[in-house]
Amino acid sequence: MSDGSGIFTFTQDMDLNGKQLYIIVRSEPKANVFANSSDARHTVTFSNSLSMRNSSNAQFTTVNQDSMKVTEKGTNLKEVADYGSYSKSTNGTGPWTNVNQVMSGNAPGDRILSTWATADGKTSELTSGTYVDYRLIVNYAGNEEGTLRVEDVVPAGMEPVYVRYFWTNPNQSADTRPEMSPISSLPDGNWKEIGVKNGALNGGASGITKSAYAYYDASTGKVIFDVTNLHRDLTGAVDTMDIQVQIVMRVTDPDALLGKGATFVNTMQVYKTDGALVNTSTTSTDIKITDSIVKGMSDLTNSSLNFTITVNPRGEDLLTGSDNLTLVDEYSGNLAIDPSSIHVKKNATDTSDISFTVQMDPTNHTMTLVIPDSEKLVITYTADLQAALDTEASVSNSAYWYGYSSANGKTVSKSFKVGAGGSISFGSSPLIQITKVDSLNIGTKLQGAVFDIYEAQLGTDGKTYEKTGDVIAEGTTDAEGIVTFGSGTSTNTTLKYNKIYCLVEKTAPAGYIKSTEPIYVGVFRTKKVGDKNLYPRDWDQGNPTAADCWTSSDLESWSNVSIIYTNYIDKITWPNSRTKVRIDKTFWKEDGATKMDFPKGSYSFGLYYNGQQIQKLTITNTNGLLQYLLTANGKTTAEAAPEFVGLNTNDTYEVYELDDTGNPVKNGRLVYTNGTQYTVAYQNSSSTITTTDAESQDFAISNTHFSIPVTGLPLSGSRGYEVGAVLLAGVFTAYVLWMRKRRT
């Protein structure tokens, strides 16, 4: 029983050969440190004593005593030392940024190796990236002896880089120092040796070098190593007979690297040689790297603003499994980006661009750039501020990674006043210039789009415009994708200032979907009316009054009109989309009627045109999270949906599921995915699809679970079904012949 002081007493009366024997066993902690401490290295010592007396009147005499030290998380524990982002320099060790020191006195640059020796006698180098330094401490309280196996479970979104023998007490003798010995008989799995060889120990053990033997299986996400030659500490001290092992992990989780943040729970389990679990230790780490995007905005020059975006400053692999990153630039509705001003370079001083694609969405005021991963890039462009002269206009511009939000990126905001002077250019009459581009890449100009232009009038709601009257001109985009209205020819009438025009796409470029929404635009200029700058409804009117004019507030109240204030040319970038084919993937149980959850694993599909594969789509299910990778034109990008994109309208394609060798699977064949067998059936029993003018079409592919008897012979690829049928037929034939022989 306890007396409330933490002392536990157990008594027993015994009769030995007619004599009364009284025994007391007392257990007492020397220090109560668990109550308020979160430090895993804090220990408490429990003392245990045995006392006896031979009569109720005698004094107790201590006949034996012992003690046991216990740490808060057990004698084997795991800690986070620090983490940070590393930039590999061409001239040697690069700088560390985003450093977070969890353990005092540590910094990644001091503790994480930039080079190390590997098992094959080669030297590995730390590449640019974000890394976490974990410490695995075995036998801290000095209670263990012999050999222990340590298993470290790598959290999703990380991968181990190396394991090394980090520290041991320099006062230990060589014959009591723990070792990280080779494992002669590894468990089943695909193990890779990742231990550092002949590495110098940190701390006071100067001059000592040790080799670590550790093994990683990427399929299970586990690291294992054995610690041998463990000894107990018989003096009652802690941190004398232990070993500290360093595991350095590279962060691969896109949430952590792209500004959203992620939590990583890392678990260490320690086992005896007979497989009995000794203890488990876990540690949690929150990581959020916010400098993958840096954005800047210049001051206003005339009516223009220059923007600079620096992405991936360390040139690290930010999106595992994809060759490209997708950057979204969300801009204010009063900005008009000049597509020809967009440049993507490795360095601001480079003279040429790298390969990139740009998509524009004028309706939602977003620009999307697909750029290479694993490279530091500098993106620049110019935008015109479309604001009434001599008025304050606020500008907000945000850059963030696709799939995230502006809160996870960088935003620049400022207010500007567009002056009436300077080099603002006005001609005798306005022009409207349309550049027709591909929506997936505005660098692709489209010829053959036909446009009609109408005059427009303000609707009865006083806020929206609508087209009126007959077509005043028609034009077709040239080889550069350009058509211009207002040139003043017999077929291209002169346009007027301060008038709203309606542009309608009459015919889309070949293979593209026709735009159904008209665009309303106007080029506006002011005249001095009294002491104010106003916008005459009739620009040609000689002496307009205030009643004949609009104010800036009037123009700002129109909800569906794009207005140019600072130039006589209204330049419009008008994208057109091609169609998409979305894979509608369904799994069924063997009865063909009960739907299954989407199984774990990767499933690939090919899009074929004239017998040639032109795109490949891979759907991966990782713990219920579906991810989509599309490979086209030699590039792989992460997509938001399982779609083949950029397809011509009214064209015929074939869609097939691919087997493990990348070959198309025909109807009724077996496809092998992670050891599971399925029959494949296509939409309407055909792999052919003819696209329409719709933005997206579904193409159904169903997989039904299928089992065949094990024959002892390997079945692979799309030939499995036929091989299985032949084997079964052979068995049946042999059985019939045998029965006939018995009857004769």
Question: Pairing-aware structural class of the strands and helices?
Answer: mainly beta
Shape: elongated
In round numbers, the mean pLDDT is 85
Tell me the number of strands: 52
Low-pLDDT segments, ≥5 res: 1-10, 29-39, 67-73, 710-744
Strand order of the largest sheet: 12-15-16-10-18-19
Percent of residues in helices: under 10%
What percentage of amino acids are in beta strands? over 45%
Number of helical segments with 4 or more residues: 4
Roughly how many Å is the radius of gyration? Answer: 37 Å
Number of domains: 5
Q: Cα distance, first to last residue?
A: 88 Å
Please give the largest β-sheet.
6 strands, antiparallel
Overview of the molecule:
The chain has 744 residues and is mostly beta strands. The protein has five domains: 8-71, N-terminal domain of TfIIb; 77-287, no CATH class; 301-417, Immunoglobulin-like, CATH 2.60.40.740; 431-575, Immunoglobulins (Immunoglobulin-like); 579-707, Collagen-binding surface protein Cna, B-type domain (Immunoglobulin-like). The strands form twelve sheets. It has a six-stranded antiparallel beta sheet with strand order 12-15-16-10-18-19. The protein has a six-stranded antiparallel beta sheet with strand order 46-45-44-43-48-51, with no helix packed on it. Strand 18 (262-271) and strand 19 (277-287) form a beta hairpin. The N and C termini lie far apart (88 Å).
